[in-house]
Amino acid sequence: MTQVNAYAAQSATTPLTPFNFSRRDVGAHDVQIEILYCGVCHSDIHQVRNEWGNSIFPMVPGHEIVGRITKVGAHVKKFKEGDLAGVGCFVDSCRTCPACLAGDEQYCEVGMVATYNGYEKDGKTPTYGGYSTQIVVDENYTLKVSEKLSIEGVAPLLCAGITTYSPLRHVGVGKGHKVAVLGLGGLGHMAVKFASSFGAEVTMLSGSKSKEADAKKLGADHFVLTSDKNAMKDRANYFDFILNTVSAPHDYNAYLNLLGTNGTMIVVGAPPAPAEIPAFNLIMKRRSIIGSLIGGIKETQEMLNYCADHNITSDVEVINIDYINNAYERMLKNDVKYRFVIDIASLKN
Ligand code: NAP
Ligand code: ZN
Ligand code: ZN
Hints:
Layout: E1 2-8, E2 17-23, E3 30-39, H1 42-48, E4 65-72, E5 84-87, E6 90-92, H2 98-101, E7 113-114, E8 134-138, E9 143-144, H3 151-154, H4 160-170, E10 178-182, H5 186-197, E11 201-206, H6 212-218, E12 222-225, H7 229-234, E13 239-244, H8 252-256, E14 259-267, H9 279-283, E15 288-291, H10 297-310, E16 316-319, H11 324-332, E17 339-343
Parallel strand pairs: 10-11, 10-13, 11-12, 13-14, 14-15, 16-17
Antiparallel strand pairs: 1-2, 3-4, 3-8, 3-17, 4-5, 5-9, 6-7
Helix pairs in contact: 4-5, 4-10
């Protein structure tokens, strides 16, 4: 067992504070990773504040982890000491159900082992995430990270990156498609980069006028301010796909109206409250709404390789760990460009 420094939430209503705990010894199939950077996902806020009603405390959040391997188990094949590695939203799964066998471990029928706010397969050891100095993970659930890209910009790919890459690939977004991305935050900015890189015509739908220039720099062809009623009307029945990344409860119907016949809204944002969808808004144009959860290990590796080949990283604001509670407050005000990433060196003393 190794003692590690971390930041944890002790309850849903208190700020994150310093916390120490021990990581397991390195097993035969494990790698030990010295964490260098960890991204801050809006899911961290939802869970720290128990907005999804499933929180386990104390909670060490963080599932956008990049670091260097400091030890490998006797049977490890994929990694050696000194390699860069990444860990995303889950660290294990049953490995035998149809979803796991298909490489969709995130949909494991027994339940994936979440990187934090979950239990190991023994059902009783809590998992702690990346707002910490070190993690031990089975090599099969660890990703290879290229030395070519800035590692702080790679960290958010482990959640924001795969969560947007996977559904865009699943529905086959490419040249000739009109794609809208709703919400320009961590997920939204990666969605714009990927959809544009895949050749689609990309429109940013945002409530923040101040993000227009950035949206275009990220690769959006058009920007629509969602509070501008005329601009929204102009885009009625227009899009093939809308990737909805909104974190707060909102009216889905205002955006469904923008989909053309056979159009699809892909929901990745996870607001705590349910939404109301009138049947007519779907049936009159054979529209559909689908959801998507992160991505499997194989596809996450494919996404990381794609990013290394196409020089894609997240636009980040690097922070020290003692800024984390302020970072949460700023995210809740839609004030993040476009992902906070914690420099884990700030946790070391
Ligand atoms: P984020 O960085 O905070 O960005 C969310 C963006 O949504 C904001 O920047 C804002 O963009 C927009 N927004 C916020 N409140 C809104 C409202 N009331 N109405 C309309 N737009 C609003 O969050 P994130 O890290 O990208 O995460 C987004 C959501 O995805 C969260 O709910 C998170 O839990 C979820 N998530 C899901 C998965 C999955 O696997 N499905 C994975 C990761 C995260 P504008 O300023 O442009 O309006
Ligand atoms: Zn996340
Ligand atoms: Zn499974």
